[in-house]
Amino acid sequence: MEKSNLPPKASDDAIHIAVATVNRLDYLLTWNCKHIANAQIQRKLLNIAEELGYKLPILCTPYELMGE
After folding, report:
1. What is the C-alpha to C-alpha distance for residues 30 and 62, in angstroms, rounded to an integer?
2. For the purposes of burial, counting CB atoms within 10 Å of the CB of 25, is it exposed (0-12), middle (13-18) or buried (19 or more)?
3. Cα–Cα distance between 1 and 14 in angstroms, integer?
4. Can you give the pLDDT of all 68 residues of the chain as single tens digits?
């Protein structure tokens, strides 16, 4: 949370992202476009994950995954 650009109220969202990342999921599907499926936040999270030796899953809505 300290390194990310997530607000303090998004701690549950940070946990979801962290669990998906450390468990090496390919995708994390969400309807949460405010904190999870957000391109600006993802860019920062990608850098944090890489610094720690992880690959950030693709964070997207089900519609984005399906191509709609």
Report:
1. 7
2. middle
3. 7
4. 788 888 889 999 999 999 999 999 999 999 998 889 888 889 999 999 999 999 999 999 999 999 86
Residues with Cβ within 8 Å of 27's Cβ and at least 6 positions away in sequence, in order, are 57, 58, 59, 60, 65
Burial category of 45 from C-beta neighbours within 10 Å (exposed 0-12, middle 13-18, buried 19 and up): buried
Residues 6 or more apart whose CB falls under 8 angstroms from that of 45 comprise 4, 17, 56, 59
Looking at this protein, which amino acid is placed at residue 62? Answer: P
What are the φ/ψ torsions at residue 59 (nearest 5 degrees)?
A: -105, 110
Write out the two tokens for 47: 């850098």
